[in-house]
Amino acid sequence: MIKQSGVRSQGSGVRKIIIFLAVFCFLVIGSFLLSPAHAGEYTFDISETEKKPYQIGGYAEFRPVLSGLDKDASLHKLKFYNRDEGSVIEEYNAKLQLEGSLEKGVAKLFIKTNTDYKKSYLGEDQKTTVYEGFLSIKPSSSLTIDIGKKTLRWGKGYAWSPVAFIDRPKDPDDPELSLEGFIVASADYIKTFQGPLKTLSFTPVLIPVYEHVNNNFGDVNNLNFAGKLYFLFYDMDIDFIILTGGSKTTRYGADFSRNLTTNFEIHGELAFIADYKKRFIDSNGNSLENVYDAKSYLIGIRYLTEEEATYILDFDILYFTPSITAIANVNDKSFSISPELLYTGITNLELRLKASFLSGERQSEYGEKQNDYRAELRARYYF
Length: 383
Prior knowledge:
Distance between the termini: 52 Å
Strand order of the largest sheet: 12-11-10-9-8-7-6-5-4-3-2-1-16-15-14-13
Order of helices and strands: HEHEEEEEEEEEEEEEEE
Largest sheet: 16 strands, antiparallel
Number of helices: 2
Radius of gyration: 24 Å
Strand content: over 45%
């Protein structure tokens, strides 16, 4: 009976993935048929080029997800130790992200909010968060001062940035997602030169951490300082970064990026964290702590094709951007591969079909994830 139940679960998972594919194709074709003009005349409105004192925009998104569970993995046993959800679980997500700005003279007010809705095996959950909300003052072309909740996005890495000391971690499955910022006071001073050193900028940042202010940044009742020194030297971007205070141990970082050719770029980061505390649980369930000086680094490349490729099927109805992302742990040889298909044939509408497949031996990073595979469909409308 157990074996028969497993067969039915696997068949159900396959059927659900087929339904995902069918829904994706239906949305693509339907969005084309419902569009008022897929080959209409080009129009130009001079008012669209005039800068307005205010900007309002955002997007609405619906994203169902299917996950195939690895019941032998450690993370599965940890999360599902007292329940049996079968071999495939469903999840439904919705998101509404709004942003707006108001500009007058040297001052600009910016705000970004994010509302997430999630329905899964754990139930329903909804949360609205202010991702960013700050006042920016620019008294001169060389100086900008910001006060409020802000995301800084330091570092050159795509899926992970070890020098992003005052940013929240990126989602490796979707690194371009907006992140919630921290309440800070920062300035940005820029100076340009003639010669090998073309640009120099300095960005000091104050990060208060108290009971109701940035209390998830680190230890409370501390005022922390971070700084970034940027150089554009011989067409190479270079940053030197520091964070100190009391909420986190002192850490230093450096990064660089350089275009070797017009389409080929190389980048890297190096971070040093003093007295880093690593907490773990041994086989007996005891909580232990190890303190050491940690080093993290990355090296990466980015290649852009010389020509944009457009794939057209019959009557100009399908515009697809295929891509694939691979993340590997070189130490234990485990990895994840995520193929993706993006359709943007209709203005302001984005349809994405993405799958992720994980592979690795037991006790490896990706071999112990709770999923064997994951498939998601995202429909996002910008306004």
